């Protein structure tokens, strides 16, 4: 029974600040809510709010699709990039400690307000144009790759990634951390044995590191998805509908559609991964 | 002869890799640090240097005028104190409550505890926006199952106080608390059972074992959780802009900074504020907001990086 006592604080909070609100939000999403002197009056309207969000509201569908494509595009990049960096940061070289602390800096700096203010900063925009030419560089590379016969879709994807490098780097802090911690739990004997057998570093990565961290690839993919869904155009729209237009019902309906969309994506990702992840035990 | 040539080929390969690695790491570090350097450079420029063609990085006329303006507009020292107090309080409370819950879920299994842990996972998965409005309305007229009405006659309004943060922190439901519970649970599961059994044999009760044996062992994961929760609370604009509309906290001040700047920084009576100048002060404001975090990070980063490796996030 001690277990109940230890979990109790969380359980109270879970019921008060999560579970009851969750049900309430589901109820709100199917009603119109009027605030008056006595409090709020809730009137059941069925799926009217959902219909309004999906068919009447002008920005909802666009924001939803935009945020979903954004996530689908960015998640693979972030996961691969952070795994690659974790492998590099795990190698021994001079200045490793400094490099590590720089790469974890985005964990601290990448947050909603700062990022959104930065995107509006005039000075930064001007300076980036000044020092730029980066667009030119990728253009040239694009041509080179297209000539070499790489499919156009992949080329635009990759060059887009290069242009968004800051966004990707700044979203990978926690993922690098998790991968790095995971790589360090792999026993060194495995690498020694493979070296004796004549495996190169490249082979060792694919045959040892990759399978051993594959559960973490799953964890990181999930984390990245949740993280990128937590703050984007969609959440802003939901908040504005609720707190600027005071249409609580519509806002809740939007939030539920959004949640269901995320849940579907998470389920698909879990299905994809569950077949491929390697567990040691 | 052949072996030495082979060796030298190996040597070349490893050199080449070192060079590539060096270029990659330096380049990416530059990408990360560039905005910070840029802000520092902008913040110490005098207003005239903005339009000077010779000035790119190092200003011609150093000036701390930007800092003075930003500090005035943001009411920096009050804001700093408020933010620090808020973040420190929630960090300590969250860490304590999450450690308790994590231990409960890891070791003190009871009937249905796995189901409840499913609830923890659910709190991680559901976007906070989904439950924002009910929580907001709930806090606006907070009535703990009729208790408040019983004592004071009417429900209390908790908005614009620190109570929402304290209450959610005590009950392990604050910002990203599900993640912290998960980290603690993974960590406690990684500690060998023998350690606890030895403590029980020596006559320690469950609470004594927890505070004397398990918690001291959990320091690495506690450092990780504390750092994350402090930083995320500091930067959080989602909850603070909802719960604390008029209170002076760093993230609310930052998000209203562009507006406040346009209001307060106008040179002379009629002239319109120069958008570049405003942007300059805004950058200085951002720098001032993250500066305390960077300073804290400089002190704890070594410990932080080491501790994450031992945290057992990766159980």
Textual characterization of the structure:
Chain A: InterPro entries: MetI-like, MetI-like_sf, UgpAE/MalFG_permease. Chain A: The chain crosses the membrane at residues 6-26, 33-51, 71-90, 97-117, 165-183, 204-226, 253-273. Chain A: Its main location: membrane. Chain A: It is found in: Cell membrane. The complex is a heterodimer of chains A (281) and B (315). Helix content of chain A is 79%, strand content 4%. By secondary structure, chain A is mostly helical. Chain A has two domains: 57-110 and 171-276, MetI-like (MetI-like fold), CATH 1.10.3720.10; 115-163. In chain A, strands 1-2 form a two-stranded antiparallel sheet. In chain A, a hairpin with a 2-residue loop joins strand 1 and strand 2. The longest helix of chain A has 31 residues, at 60-90. Chain B is mostly helical. Chain B has a domain at 75-255: MetI-like fold, CATH 1.10.3720. Helix content of chain B is 72%, strand content 0%. Chain B has helices spanning 2-43, 65-74, 76-106, 113-125, 132-140, 147-152, 163-170, 177-190, 193-201, 206-217, 219-235, 238-243, 250-255, 257-264, 275-311. The longest helix of chain B is centred in the first third of the chain and has 42 residues, at 2-43. The model of chain B has no long low-confidence stretch (mean pLDDT 80). The interface between A and B is large, with 87 and 95 residues.
Indicate the structural class of chain A.
Answer: mainly alpha
Question: What is the CATH level 1 assignment of the domain at 75-255 in chain B?
Answer: Mainly Alpha
User: What is the subunit arrangement here?
Assistant: heterodimer
State the CATH architecture of the largest domain in chain A.
Orthogonal Bundle
Instruction: Please state the overall shape of chain B, judged from the principal axes of the Cα atoms.
Output: flat
Rg of chain B (C-alpha, Å) = 26 Å
Alpha-carbon distance between the termini of chain B?
49 Å
Question: What's the end-to-end separation of chain A, in Å?
Answer: 31 Å
Order of helical and strand elements of chain A: HEEHHHHHHHHHHHHH
Low-confidence runs of chain B (pLDDT<50, min 5 residues)? none
Mean pLDDT of chain A: 80
Classify the fold: give the CATH topology of the domain at 75-255 in chain B: MetI-like fold
Structural class of the secondary elements of chain B?
Answer: mainly alpha
The average pLDDT of chain B is 80
């Amino acid at each position: 029974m001690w277990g109940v006592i230890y979990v109790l604080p969380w359980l109270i909070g879970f019921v008060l600040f999560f579970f009851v609100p969750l049900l309430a939000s589901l109820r709100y999403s199917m009603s119109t809510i009027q605030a008056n002197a006595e409090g709020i009056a809730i009137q059941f309207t069925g799926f009217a709010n959902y219909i309004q969000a999906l068919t009447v509201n002008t920005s909802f569908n666009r924001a939803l699709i935009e945020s979903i494509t954004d996530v689908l595009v960015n998640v693979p990049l972030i996961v691969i990039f952070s795994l690659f960096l974790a492998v590099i940061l795990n190698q021994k070289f001079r200045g490793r400690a400094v490099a590590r602390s720089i790469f974890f800096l985005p964990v601290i700096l990448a947050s909603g307000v700062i990022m959104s203010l930065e995107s509006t900063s005039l000075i930064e925009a001007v300076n980036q144009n000044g020092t730029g030419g980066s667009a030119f560089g990728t253009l040239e590379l694009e041509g080179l790759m297209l000539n070499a016969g790489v499919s156009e879709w992949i080329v635009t994807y990759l060059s887009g990634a290069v242009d968004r490098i800051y966004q990707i780097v700044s979203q990978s802090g926690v993922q690098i951390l998790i991968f790095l911690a995971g790589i360090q739990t792999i026993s060194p004997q495995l690498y020694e044995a493979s070296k004796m057998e004549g495996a190169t570093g490249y082979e060792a990565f694919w045959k040892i590191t990759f399978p051993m961290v594959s559960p973490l690839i799953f964890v990181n993919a999930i984390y990245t998805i949740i993280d990128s869904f937590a703050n984007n155009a969609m959440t802003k729209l939901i908040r504005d509908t609720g707190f600027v237009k005071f249409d609580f019902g519509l806002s809740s309906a939007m939030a539920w559609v959004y949640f269901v969309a995320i849940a579907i994506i998470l389920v698909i990702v879990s299905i994809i991964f569950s077949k491929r992840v390697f567990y040691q035990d | 002869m052949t072996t030495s040539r082979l060796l030298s080929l190996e040597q070349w390969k490893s050199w080449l890799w070192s060079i590539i690695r060096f270029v990659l790491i330096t380049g990416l570090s530059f990408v990360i640090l560039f905005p910070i350097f840029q802000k520092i450079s902008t913040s110490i420029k005098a207003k005239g240097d903005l339009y000077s063609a010779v000035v790119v990085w190092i200003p011609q006329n150093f000036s701390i005028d930007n800092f003075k303006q930003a500090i005035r507009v943001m009411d920096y020292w009050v804001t700093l104190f408020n933010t620090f107090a808020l973040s420190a309080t929630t960090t300590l409370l969250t860490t304590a409550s999450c450690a308790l819950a994590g231990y409960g879920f890891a070791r003190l299994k009871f009937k249905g505890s796995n189901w409840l842990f499913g609830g923890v996972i659910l709190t991680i998965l559901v976007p906070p926006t989904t439950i924002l409005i009910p929580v907001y309305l709930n806090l606006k007229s907070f009535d703990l199952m009729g208790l408040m009405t019983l004592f004071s006659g009417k429900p209390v309004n908790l908005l614009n106080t620190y109570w929402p943060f304290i209450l959610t922190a005590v009950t392990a439901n604050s910002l990203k608390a599900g993640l912290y519970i998960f980290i603690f649970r993974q960590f406690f599961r990684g500690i060998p059972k023998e350690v606890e059994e030895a403590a029980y044999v020596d006559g320690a009760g469950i609470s004594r074992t927890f505070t004397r044996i398990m918690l001291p062992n959990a320091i690495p994961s506690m450092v990780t959780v504390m750092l994350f929760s402090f930083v995320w609370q500091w930067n959080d604009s989602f909850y603070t802009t909802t719960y604390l509309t008029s209170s002076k906290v760093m993230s609310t001040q930052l998000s209203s900074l562009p507006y406040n700047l346009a209001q307060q920084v106008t040179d002379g009576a009629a002239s319109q504020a120069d958008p570049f100048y405003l942007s300059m002060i805004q950058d200085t404001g951002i720098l001032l907001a993250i500066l305390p975090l960077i300073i804290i990070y400089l002190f704890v980063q070594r410990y932080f990086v080491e501790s994450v490796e031992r945290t057992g996030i990766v159980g």
